[in-house]
Amino acid sequence: SARLGRCRGAEKDARPQARAHMVGFRYVARGPVRRPRASHGSSLRSVRTAETMGTQFRIGVIGTGLAFKSLHVPEIAELSDRLHVVATSSRTLAGAEAGASAVAEATGLRPEACDNVEQLLARPDVDGVLIAVPINLTAGLARQALLAGKAVFAEKPLADDVAEARALLDLARSKGLVLFVGENYRYQRQYRQFGELAASGLIGTPVLFRLNDLHFTSPQSKYATTAWRRQGTHRGGYLLDGGLHTIAGMRSVVPSPVTAVHGLATSFHPEFLARQNDTLLLHLTFAGGIIGDVG
Fold this sequence. Notes:
The protein is of the alpha/beta class. The chain has 8 helices and 14 strands. It has helices at about 65-80, 95-105, 115-120, 135-145, 160-175, 190-200, 225-230, 235-255, and strands spanning about 1-5, 5-10, 20, 25-30, 55-60, 85-90, 110-115, 130, 150-155, 180, 205-210, 260-265, 280-285, 290-295. A 6-stranded mixed β-sheet has the order 2-4-11-14-13-12, with helices on one face. A 6-stranded parallel β-sheet has the order 7-6-5-8-9-10. A two-stranded antiparallel ribbon has the order 1-3. The longest helix is centred in the last third of the chain and has 17 residues, at about 235-255.
């Protein structure tokens, strides 16, 4: 478990002693503390607008592999009153058919399997697309979908580099379309609550942040055995693929921009990931003076 650091500079009887049940976080703070204010937040699932109530957003799926079947299909089934999958596309027609079958089993409605992405994007009944493909393919497909006038929900990361990601954002804005990256750590309760606690002033002014996400990943897990992950031909390899989650969580807790980075990377198990780096340590400086490290 992790611990909230004591507030330096505060009165002794005002120092919070509670432990936070969140693995890996630690904040050290200084200065006076404030009493928490009442919060009237609502869960993501309870937020519905007039545009979504009573209507269904029609989506086409590009990429029907492991991530789509294990992560997205259960959520699509739970949100079936608002989402309707009308078409699927994958590297092969057989893959698209398998994705359509997964949707049919979960929702009772079978989408049409398309021969290729172009056929899916040409459909007038597709309002937006879900893109769940290997990392090196995401940006090109997102651009293709935006040019076809479709909203885009893409698996992380959006692109190989910042310039390419910004170009996609500019394109989406110019078209008046939604471009969204499905980074789930942004919405995990422990990160959001920890960030809200720090921002509330309850522990004083944060000056030091530590996040330890060093862990062993079995080389036989269903994600680690994926061929494109093992090969690591995409920029950043395994650390970009998995490390993005940790950094997204960090940014939920420390919203200040990072102004300086020092990092060390190595490979403890080169036999598993074609000699890709598998471990990363970062020392960070944030705007406003907070310093921290992430592993």
